[in-house]
Amino acid sequence: MVKRVRTAVFPVAGLGTRFLPATKAMPKEMLPVVDRPLIQYAIDEAREAGIEHFVFVTGRNKGVIEDHFDRQFELEFTLEQRGKTRALADLRSDLPRPGQTSFTRQQEPLGLGHAVWCARDLVGGEPFALLLPDMIFKSEPGVLKQMVDAYEQRGGNVIAVEEVDPEDVSSYGVVARGEGPDESFDITGMVEKPEVAEAPSNLIISGRYILQPEIFQLIADQPKGAGGEIQITDAMQALMKNQDFTGVKYAGKSFDCGSKIGFLTANVVFALDRPDIASGFMDELKKLTGALPLSVDDSEH
Ligand code: UTP
């Protein structure tokens, strides 16, 4: 019997420099895809996978994330007065239950590994899920649920991966694939941002992890890695010497909402999947594409 994964960590302390000026005073994780903030998609995915404790590693300007996961009595009262019972019910069902959220501060954005390490005391000695909220997915079931299913069979550590064009691997953490089916295969190695010629595969780590608590000490022992940041991949490489890692090539599609193109694409795809706005939005898109070629000045790129 493996120990159940009850806790999920959400690192939300990054500066979001690729989205300035939108992220100057507002966290990137509160950018909306259609009408839900990015962080809400990650929370929903974690709840579907059975997570009961939500740990946020925050930084300055991130208090609004804490407010988002709290009751808002004035708003609820007004919705009630106006008979907007559906909106009220939706707001309430989005909330984790009282006592299920914990917040800690990273203080300085020293990298993803460092952000995860800041959660060590809140996680304790249990396996935990790690979700990067700027990656969201269209998948059924959710990506973390697919990973928990693999974890319950094999234990150890689990990483969600997806295929990219081999030319594009240098922007990501990349794994080496061993034996096993797409749903759960052995990971035999990993490297952060390799040169194309040195990449062990075109399977990239896509922002979802299940990790054993021994990772925390390894992060603490880690020197700074790629980009001068404390990288989680370096600590996972060290953990691989003693523990198994399973890859899950998940069924579904990812949207990297930390990049402008990923974020805009996610808005189109998620809007077209929403019964309340899909047909109106599609009409507008058709009008736009009917007016093609839109003038795009290549010199600006
Ligand atoms: P990113 O590298 O995508 O986020 O980290 P960033 O640094 O905020 O964005 P850019 O590159 O400047 O535009 C992935 C996740 O890890 C968190 C981020 O908040 C994001 O959710 N993170 C990153 C931290 O919590 N702390 C860090 O030091 C770095």
Itemize the secondary structure elements and their pairings.
Elements: E1 7-11, E2 32-33, E3 36-37, H1 38-48, E4 53-58, H2 63-68, H3 73-81, H4 85-94, E5 101-105, H5 112-117, H6 120-123, E6 128-131, E7 135-138, H7 143-154, E8 157-163, E9 173-177, E10 185-192, E11 203-211, H8 215-220, H9 232-239, E12 245-249, E13 253-256, H10 260-272, H11 278-290
Parallel strand pairs: 1-4, 1-6, 4-5, 8-12
Antiparallel strand pairs: 2-3, 6-11, 7-13, 8-11, 9-10, 10-12
Bound molecules: uridine 5'-triphosphate.
Uridine 5'-triphosphate binds next to helix 5.
Task: Kindly describe this structure.
- By secondary structure, the protein is an alpha/beta fold.
- It has one domain (7-286): Spore Coat Polysaccharide Biosynthesis Protein SpsA, Chain A, CATH 3.90.550.10.
- Helix content is 33%, strand content 22%.
- The protein has a 9-stranded mixed beta sheet. Strands 2-3 form a two-stranded antiparallel sheet. The chain has a two-stranded antiparallel sheet with strand order 7-13.
- β9 (173-177) and β10 form a beta hairpin.
- The mean pLDDT is 92.
- Bound molecules: uridine 5'-triphosphate.
- Uridine 5'-triphosphate is lined by residues 11-18, 28-29, 57, 106, 109-112, 114-115, 132-134, 258.
